Amino acid sequence: MNKQAFTIKTKDGNFKVAIWLDKKDRVYLVKGITLPDVVTFGHSLADAKKMAREAIELFCECAIDDKKIVIDELRKVIGVFPKSHIINIA
Q1: Containing H/E element for 53?
Q2: 71 in Cβ contact with 59 (< 8 Å)
């Protein structure tokens, strides 16, 4: 299986990942496209998608805890800008 792109729907938004079969280890590998730091695997395609959703949600939770923001595929912003970065335009 060549790398295929999938949109994973999570409680935080929609995020793209690439999933492909590693024939040697017989697992489906997952790498975030929208969030490149997200990497996981599953024993089936369905399992890989489930693991991707869990990994993305954990990544978003950690980013928000670190006062960072995350932007999903639909340009939805997750998290809160620190007050020092908010610009009031009057």
Answers
A1: helix 45-65
A2: no
Give the chain's mean pLDDT.
90
pLDDT digits (tens, 9 = 90+) for 25-40: 999 999 999 999 999 9
Q: Exposure of 29 by Cβ count < 10 A (0-12 exposed, 13-18 middle, 19+ buried)?
A: middle
Element (H, E) at 77: strand 77-78
CA 37 to chain centroid, in Å, comes to 8
Token pair of 55, please? 């990994």
Instruction: For 2-28, give one letter per residue: b (16+ CB within 10 A) or e.
Output: eeeeeebebebbebebebebeeeeebb
What are the backbone dihedrals phi and psi of residue 82, each rounded to the nearest 5 degrees, phi first?
A: -60, 145
